[in-house]
Amino acid sequence: MTLTTIRTAAASSLAAAGLLFTLAACSTPAATQPTTSAPAPTATASSSAASEPCAGVKVIVDSGALKQAAADTSVCVPVDAPTPASKVLDEAKVKTEGTAEYPKELVCRVNGVPAADLDIAHKGGTYQEKCSKMPAAFAYWALWVKPASGDWAYAQEGLSTLKVSPGQSLELLYTVDGAPAAPAA
Question: What is the distance between the terminal CA atoms of the chain, rounded to a whole angstrom?
């Protein structure tokens, strides 16, 4: 391995770790909002939800490189105002788990994926996600947001502070060695 290759690999790892730390730093508990006695809207699931317009927030879970279809979902969650992403995921019945060290700041598992005993193949061999500290810089759940009309972008905040609005899409995408690089259109 050349010194340039080592430096490039180190820079890539640092950049990914920096993104995870940034998300963790931005993830502070959201202020509690007063609740009303009106029933909460419920998410509507549909096998064609990915292609149908959504009056609320479209929630997508894509296990990406893991190809764990049981974790994948596409659901429209009715909202009429900016809403915390964590609440939208709860209403979509998407269960996220953090790590032992960062239980609310990071996403380590979504709907139980990846399982603690799953061998995740990557360029350096195999890896098992134990969710104790930071997820690996080469294998992690990435949080993406898409405006009503526009392109996908990495979320600039964590689930506890990010708010999504009607017409937006929210995606959790599992990435290994940088692939997939972004959500599908």
Answer: 37
CA distance 66 to 20: 19
Contact 161, 26 (CB under 8 A): yes
The pLDDT tens digits along the chain (185 residues) read 433 333 333 333 333 333 333 333 333 333 323 323 233 334 444 333 445 689 999 999 999 999 888 889 999 999 999 999 999 999 999 999 999 998 988 899 999 999 999 999 999 999 999 999 999 999 999 999 999 889 999 999 988 899 999 999 999 999 999 999 999 87
The two tokens of residue 81 are: 């105002």
Q: What is the amino acid identity at position 157?
A: E
> 134 with 17: CB under 8 angstroms?
yes
CA distances, 42 to each of 80, 85, 119, 159 (Å): 13, 15, 35, 19
In terms of C-beta density within 10 A (0-12 exposed, 13-18 middle, 19 or more buried), how is residue 105 classed?
A: buried
Closest CA to 166 of 41, 80, 52: 80
